[in-house]
Amino acid sequence: MKNYVWLLVGVSLLLFMAACGNSDQEVIGAENGEWEPQEVIEIVAPAGAGGGYDTTARMAVQAFAEEGIIEQSMGVVNKVGGGGAVGWAYVADQDCSPYHMFVTSPPFLLVPLNGQSQYGYEEFTPIANIIADYPAFAVAADAKWDNLNELFDDMKADPSSVTVVGTSSPGSMDHIAFAMVAKAAGVDITKIKYVSAQDNAGLTQVLNGSADVFSTGVAETVEQVKAGNLKVLGVTSEERLEGETLEDFPTVAEQDIDASIINWRGFFGPPNMPKEAQEYYEEKFKELSESDAFADIRNRFGWGEMYMDSEETKQYLDEQHAEFKVILEELGLAK
Fold this sequence. Notes:
CATH superfamily of the largest domain: Bordetella uptake gene, domain 1
Helix content: 40-55%
Number of domains: 2
Strand order of the largest sheet: 2-1-3-10-4-11
Number of helices: 11
CATH architecture of the largest domain: 3-Layer(aba) Sandwich
Distance between the termini: 40 Å
Largest sheet: 6 strands, mixed
Radius of gyration: 22 Å
Number of strands: 11
Strand content: 15-25%
CATH class of the largest domain: Alpha Beta
């Protein structure tokens, strides 16, 4: 019986090694001893078309091609659902593949922490972080508040008197970004009234008066501010952003609120991505970050430059994971 058990273990190990063996053979067999992709590279945007993930992935693919950084064909595939969890599960199934990756951001940490995904960040292969985006808090143009301190004074008196709306689910980015800033301002965050709205309904709710504050990405506010529909009370960047309209948005810090939140966006490979492939993509994303084409893209969308290599990305996520766990526990949303 004991020999039979060991036989099963041995067979399982051989099957696992064989499953990853095809990718390893491709890596070892590359010309000049350096791996280069020989097949179409698939980047998963774990959300619908037009959102932050989709835009980041498609702009990266565009710049890779325009600058000749990666000559192999690249495609973007949208996997919608679960706050990103559907996309992560899909890439997790591509174990060992050097041809799959996904773009993600802080919900990659938040969603597993609040129990909505079985996949934690530790299970995937960090490649590189490339941009910093920033949360923004906006209200209708005719709202009574002209800055965050006026808003938070009302919320300190009665937190539930203000309805905050965001696209993400409770316990994910739009909710947590607002809660972290409100906490730093002295608001009882356990009593904040946060509602989730999909398909841009959050903007509609603020404009029709059914919600008071729109917690979103800064890029989602610019055109509405230009049109005279919204005013931005604060953004979480350490300094004012550059660019028309963006430069007019006050930061949280300049309103004496000690909170700085980055909605980073980075790329990850599946579990057990071959090291040679990881290193190849890491270097290519560095070239992308330093390119003129991607600098223009960052300026267009109000993104900050934030390249981190795989090791720096892993360390940063470890730190942010611990920080998010604390605030989710305070909100009673940690699982």
